[in-house]
Predict the structure of Glutamate/tyrosine decarboxylase-like PLP-dependent enzyme.
Amino acid sequence: MDLSFKDQWRLPAVVPSEVFTRTAEIAVEWLQSLDSRPIAESATVHDLRSRLGGPLPRDPVDPLEVVEDLARAAEPGLVGIPSGRYFGFVLGGGLPAAVAADWLTSVWDQAPAMYACGPAAAVTEEVAGAWLRQLLGFPDDASFAFVPGSQMAHLTCLAAARHHVLRAAGWDVEELGLNGAPPIRVLTGARRHASVDRALRFLGIGKASLTLIPTDGSARMRVPRLREELAADDSPAIICAQAGEINTGAFDDMDAIADVAAEARAWLHIDGAFGLWTAASPALRHLVKGAGRADSWALDAHKWLNVPYDSGLAFCAHPQAHRAAMSVSADYLVQGGPGEPREPINWTPAFSRRARGFAVYAALRSLGQRGVAELVERTCAHARTFAEGLADIPGCRILNEVVINQVLFRFEDDETTERVLRRVVDSGEAYMSGTSFDGRRAIRISVSNWQTDDGDVARTLEAFRNAVGRQDTDGSADMGGTSASHRP
């Protein structure tokens, strides 16, 4: 019997439970393979295009076949990011409760823009946001937004900052735009993260508006110079400080910067993508002393809180400015209701988005305050062990004071540094990223995964010892493979 496309699509070739059960099996198999599989990918981009590509099928394909084929084709191109031996780009793994909640998020398929689209998602964000304020020492009335990552968290916070400083200068940027507005100065450290500049660019604030403050050898902003620059010009000002520099892990002196910001009536924004999580640790929160005095904060939950990608957080000490910069209205948007609910759409740049609060809620509840502190402190302890072990390897020089989870080091010259890094990554034992620091190549280890244990550290150190040992015996012989410095 000939069936229409519509009828074919509706045929229950496989009931959804079978697809989901098999998908869970594939997921568990992947997670269980992490200890023995190479951490880096084993397929080239060309291989993956061949495996995954081809013409779009003309007819529907059985969902179970689609999932199994996808898993089989993609597997060689997967990087073991959830592994305890992945140390690249400050990417945490997924806590079991957070991953499970993220699966439910996909199945539930809620749209958390408004309570009318799914009150459970909105209320979960309310609860998780309040827990995070408590955990991180932010003001009780600080507003918050769940966003994809620090890039959009910066955009959200700096939009609020733009509104606030221009409103103080008598300009309504939401009504009038930037054409003719008083110029805004942004003062930030010379070693800021690139996402800060990008967020400012999205907001119409270009590089010409930036005043770069020199930093010390650990990449901390020089506060006396900041004070001098602010005193030289009374234009509306935004200061962007940093909690955890991407290479060294160093923290700006936020207490001193907060004093300067208060004197100049400048907005203080803190880029704390991973470093602000130290506020949860009694042993490390001295590093963020004064952070609670800022006007806004940006951080990632997919880093040290170990929830699945993507998950960023924006907090603002001035809810009125935050809402003014983000709020939206339209005839068809059903807002308000009993108890004046906090409509999430008024606090984020997005209309449609994932219900990220479920995974954050699950992570926080599964860890509790003590669990978050222990996770942060344990990974920092592993970083110190790395630094001690690497320092004993001939030719290795540690470049930073290991204050949190970042270890920065290099070997005799750029060529040797690159060669050793490539050998470790190509060995499959561990993954970390190359970087540049003070004009020379370096290697950065970022320990932020809940699964990393003493054995992972020992295996990685042994991989470095073997890589250097091979360097001693065969000089500059090329190992082949893909250079880690060329990875994204």
